[in-house]
């Protein structure tokens, strides 16, 4: 092992040994989950590409919310340590450690689920709308292709077929549909 | 009220938990297993059946994560990481702790007063510290003497930490670092893969399927329409 790596590893271990905040592990988990889970989802070859994109984005977003929530709660709670320690005469370092664990618990158990409930749906709806804006272009292209198939249906409208009363009914129906500009899949 | 709250969060047990990656991740996973399904059930944006399905799936997933965590972290990453760190940092003169449990027991006792260390409730930790454990950087002084020795050495652990060397921090930190790596590997790589294999069969056994899954129904209907029209044409 190179001396640079050795010293870095040693510094990290000493630092964690001195003070291991409850936040470190949960942040590491949220960060890697935010990267790994969408990656795994996108690698799944069985799923539909659109569903994969949606699911991967949703997973990434959930972990981004978790990551942000842990940091925000931690930043909000920790300034309380000094006044609490002053009031009760306890060690500020110990109060900080305790509050840090409490903030992690509060965030994991309540804040993240609440935030996900409140924000995920509107954001995902917005994202879906954004993707759907592009869809009509592809749909219109598909419609053009699909319109090529119904053309033989025009034969149903031919006078020969109109002898049959059933075909006549079909003819009337299809004619009315054409007049109102309906398309296959439209 | 405030005083008792601060007393609780500054107690030795709470401090040990707060400084321990293993305990923190266990608590976090446990809370997720309860909190996420509960809030999913409360969410009124979706119908009841889908909520039930999502909440059960989330609960089972978090339980699975908890199981994976318990099975992997303590034996492989906590002990394995500590052994590896002892090899890597051999020249630093770390005390020859037999395993991570022994090191953590020492660490737990080190931050107590000598009187507290002798209490019956801490006997299980003290029993783990054997006579042969010495500090090579302090003329092979016995660690047991640091903790409950009759001479002046008793209770000097903090001084040892601050002035003499950082070997105890290095030993403790190596356990925490490998636990963090283990948590990441276990919860972000292994858990999703294993859950993919296990969760769906379990859900099927309990006949837990979303009844109103619009995402699955919509493409089926849209595909059926052109086919019917083509046939008629």
Q: How does the SSE layout of this entry go?
A:
The complex is a heterodimer of chains A (186) and B (233).
Chain A: H1 3-18, H2 22-43, H3 49-77, H4 81-88, H5 92-148, H6 165-179
Helix pairs in contact in A: 2-3, 3-5, 4-5
Chain B: H1 2-9, H2 12-18, H3 21-42, H4 48-88, H5 100-110, H6 114-117, H7 123-126, E1 134-135, E2 141-142, H8 143-148, H9 157-164, H10 167-205, H11 214-232
Antiparallel strand pairs in B: 1-2
Quick description:
With 186 residues, chain A is mainly α. Chain A is 79% helix and 0% strand.
Order of helices and strands of chain A: HHHHHH
Helix share of residues of chain A?
Answer: over 70%
Overall pLDDT metric of chain A = 77
Q: What does the main sheet of chain A amount to? A: none
Mean pLDDT across residues of chain B: 77
**Largest sheet strand order of chain B:** 1-2
Describe this structure as you would to a colleague.
The complex is a heterodimer of chains A (about 190) and B (about 230). Chain A folds into two domains: about 140 residues, no CATH class; about 40 residues, no CATH class. Chain A starts with a helix and ends in a 7-residue tail after the last helix. Chain A is about 80% helix and about 0% strand. With about 190 residues, chain A is mainly α. In chain A, helix 3 packs antiparallel against helix 5 and helix 4 packs antiparallel against helix 5. Chain B has one domain. The C terminus of chain B is likely disordered. In chain B, strand 1 and strand 2 form a beta hairpin. By secondary structure, chain B is an all-alpha fold. Chain B starts with a helix and ends with a helix. In chain B, strands 1-2 form a two-stranded antiparallel ribbon. Chain B is elongated, with a radius of gyration of 26 Å. The longest helix of chain B has about 40 residues. Chains A and B meet through helix 1, helix 2, helix 4 and helix 5 of A and helix 1, helix 2, helix 3, helix 10 and helix 11 of B.
């Amino acid at each position: 092992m190179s001396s640079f790596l050795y010293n870095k590893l040693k510094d990290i271990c000493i630092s964690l040994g001195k003070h291991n905040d409850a936040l470190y592990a949960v942040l590491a988990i949220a960060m890697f989950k935010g990267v790994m889970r969408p990656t795994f989802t996108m690698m799944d070859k069985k799923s539909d590409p659109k569903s994969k994109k949606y699911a991967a984005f949703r997973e990434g977003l959930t972990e981004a919310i978790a990551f942000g929530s842990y940091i925000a709660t931690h930043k909000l709670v920790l300034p309380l340590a000094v006044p609490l320690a002053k009031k009760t005469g306890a060690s500020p370092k110990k109060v900080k450690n305790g509050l840090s664990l409490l903030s992690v618990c509060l965030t994991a158990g309540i804040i993240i689920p609440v935030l996900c409930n409140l924000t995920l749906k509107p954001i995902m709806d917005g994202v879906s709308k954004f993707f759907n804006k592009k869809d009509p272009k592809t749909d219109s292209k598909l419609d053009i292709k699909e319109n090529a198939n119904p053309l033989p249906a025009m034969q149903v409208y031919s006078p020969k077929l109109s002898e049959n009363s059933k075909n006549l009914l079909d003819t009337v129906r299809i004619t009315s549909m054409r007049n109102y500009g309906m398309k296959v899949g439209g | 009220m405030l005083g008792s709250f601060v007393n609780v969060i500054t107690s030795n047990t709470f401090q040990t938990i707060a400084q321990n990656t293993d305990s923190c991740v266990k608590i976090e996973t446990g809370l997720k297993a309860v909190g996420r399904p509960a809030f999913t059930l409360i969410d009124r944006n979706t119908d009841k059946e889908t909520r039930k399905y999502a909440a059960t799936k989330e609960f089972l997933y978090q339980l699975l994560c908890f199981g994976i965590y318990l099975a992997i972290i303590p034996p492989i990453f906590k002990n394995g990481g500590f052994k590896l760190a002892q090899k890597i940092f051999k020249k630093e003169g770390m005390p020859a702790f037999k395993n991570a449990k022994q090191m953590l027991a020492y660490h737990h006792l080190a931050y107590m007063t000598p009187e507290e260390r002798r209490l019956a409730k801490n006997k299980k930790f003290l029993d783990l510290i054997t006579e042969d454990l010495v500090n090579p950087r302090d003329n092979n002084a016995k660690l047991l003497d640091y903790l409950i020795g009759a001479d002046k050495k008793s209770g000097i652990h903090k001084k040892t930490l601050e002035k003499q060397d950082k070997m105890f921090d290095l030993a403790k930190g190596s356990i925490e670092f490998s636990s963090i790596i283990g948590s990441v590997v276990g919860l972000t790589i292994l858990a999703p893969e294993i859950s993919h294999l296990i969760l769906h069969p379990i859900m099927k056994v309990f006949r837990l399927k979303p009844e109103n899954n619009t995402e699955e129904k919509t493409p089926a209907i849209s595909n059926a329409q052109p086919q019917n029209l083509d046939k008629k044409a």
